[in-house]
Every structure is written in structure tokens, then in C-alpha cells.
Amino acid sequence: MTLKTLHRLTAWMVAIWAVLLCAPRAFAAGTLPAPGDYVVDPAGSAVAFNVTNLVVTSVDGKFHTFSGHVAIGDSLATAHVEATVDVQSIDTGSNRRDEHLRSGDFLGAAQFPRMMFTSTSLWGTPESFGMKGNLTIKGVTKEVVFAGRIVDTGLIVAEAKIDRTDFGITSGPSIKNEVRLRLQIKLAKASP
Predict the structure, then answer these.
(1) 168-187: per-residue pLDDT in tens?
(2) What percentage of the chain has pLDDT greater than the value 70?
(3) CB-hemisphere CA count at 13 Å for 44?
(4) DSSP string, 145-163
(5) What percentage of the chain's residues is helix, strand, coil (to nearest 5)?
(6) Phi/psi of residue 130, each to 5°?
(7) CA dist 103 to 83, 107, 113, 137, 181, Å?
(8) Contact (Cβ atoms closer than 8 angstroms) between residue 162 and residue 135
(9) CB of 45 within 8 A of CB of 66?
(10) C-alpha 29: how far from chain center
(11) Closest CA to 166 of 146, 138, 131
(12) Cα–Cα distance between 164 and 175 in angstroms, integer?
């Protein structure tokens, strides 16, 4: 066997290996997980938000503690989502700002320790779906709509925009009312 033939054979084997390695990931993208009960895996998930302060400064934040349950049927329309976020776990990178956000001026974490979401309907396809549901913040429940997609089996990204004043969060005149919510949710099979 010549060196040239060996190089061709090696290149061919590397190409096949690369296709086989990537094939399961490509196949899984945009597909609905198998029917069943799932929980949110915190290790692969994120609950984040963004708001504009003083018109030009963008503040990003996240919550470290959250949980969720997702029931998936034979289609997206039969799925149901319930989630809870611990308000005390807010993190914007500034302890002083976080303490202010936990106070009664904003989220009122002592009186309202949890934010909750319960879906009422889902539609579309795994590559582009909508999810309507009831979001409760500071004891006020409002309907919100998330736009999302499944980027890999069990990994979901979704976004929504809310008006913070709808939830009784009216302090901070320099803060814009619109808050952008961003979710990255990794699902894990629920224990039987």
C-alpha cells in the first residue's frame, strides 16, 4: 500500500467517523422528546432576563434556583409545563442591586418567594412553537406567550416579553417597563 493510498484511506475513515459522530445530533435537532414525564435539569438549564436601565444600559440577570415539570404526549399540543423560580436566587452581578430587587420595591421576595408559570396551550412545530400560559410574579397572575424551539432532544430555548408594571413592579422610573425573559431548559426523565 502506497503512502498516497494510505492518506486517502485515512481521510475517508475520518470523514465517515465525522458523519457518524454528528449524525445523532443532527437527527435529534428539532424533534419532540419521547412521550412521558420530565423534570428540568438545573445543570443544563438557565432562567435569565434582560432589562434596559437609564435608556442606554442593559442589565442581564438570572435566577440560580428553579424547578419544573413537563408532561409530553404524542404531540406538542398535548404537552403541559409547570415551573417555579426562587426569587431569592436572583443574580445581576451586583449584590446591592440584587438586594434592592428582592425588596418590596420590586419583587417582594419575603412576601412572594416564588414566581410560577403554568402553560395553558402549545402549538406549532418543535422547530418553532408558541407556548401560552399564566405567569405569577409578586402575587399577580398574567397571561404571557413564549416563542421557542427545540434545538436538541431535551434542550429547549424560549423567549417572552413582559411589562413589569402589569405585575405591580412600578418602582425605578429609570428602568424600562419591558423585561425580556430567556429560558434554556434541559429536560431529564422524571423518576418513576
Answers:
(1) 999 988 899 999 999 999 99
(2) 84
(3) 13
(4) EEEEEEEETTEEEEEEEEE
(5) 25, 50, 25
(6) -115, 145
(7) 22, 6, 11, 13, 20
(8) yes
(9) yes
(10) 16
(11) 138
(12) 10
Q: Rounded to whole angstroms, how far apart are CA atoms 186 and 174?
A: 35
Residue whose cell numbers read 395553558: 120
- Location of C-alpha cell 475520518: 14
Amino acid at the residue 153: T
Q: How many residues does the chain have?
A: 192
CA gap 117, 66 in Å, rounded: 11
Whose cell is 430567556? That residue is: 182
CA atoms of 71 and 93, how far apart (whole Å): 34
CA dist 160 and 158 (Å) reads 7
Considering only CA atoms, which of 97, 101, 159 is closest in space to residue 128? 159
Scored b (16 or more CB within 10 A) or e, 127-139 reads eebebebebbbbe
| The three grid cell numbers given for residue 121, joined into one nine-digit string | 396551550
User: For the whole model, what pTM was predicted?
Assistant: 0.82
Say if CB 76 and CB 123 are below 8 A apart: yes
